[in-house]
Write a structure and sequence with these properties.
Elements: H1 2-10, H2 12-37, H3 47-50, E1 53-57, E2 63-72, E3 77-87, E4 89-91, E5 97-107, E6 110-118, E7 127-131
Parallel strand pairs: 1-7
Antiparallel strand pairs: 1-4, 2-3, 2-5, 5-6
Helix pairs in contact: 1-2
Amino acid sequence: MRILKSRFIKSRSGRTLIALAVMLVLLSGAFAVNRLTQPAAPAHASGATYGQQVELICSGYRIWDTYIYGTNQNNQYAAWHGSGNGQQYVYAQGWWWIGWTKVDFWMNNQWYHRWYYVTYSNANSSVYDAYC
């Protein structure tokens, strides 16, 4: 048995298999450490810490359908859909955005596409006003 182990370890396929096993163990350990060090998602986000809620404002026009895409307060991709029901504004209440955020909206019988850079909110408001 000792000779078999020695030959297996010295063979090219044996060394490759051992190297792959070691890499797998190291990667799984790194993944576990990364998951343990990530902060837990807050139960309720606040604008002062996690970004802002988006309100699309199109004065004088009726918004019928809206999609918002971007990074949320947990640094994850998120997508929101809401209807404007012909109002001049749409408010994505409870959805927090940070960084480049894309807003698609249906108005005047066509789709419009806008990009906004949503920053951390200031002390006065947790709502980012996105004007058409």
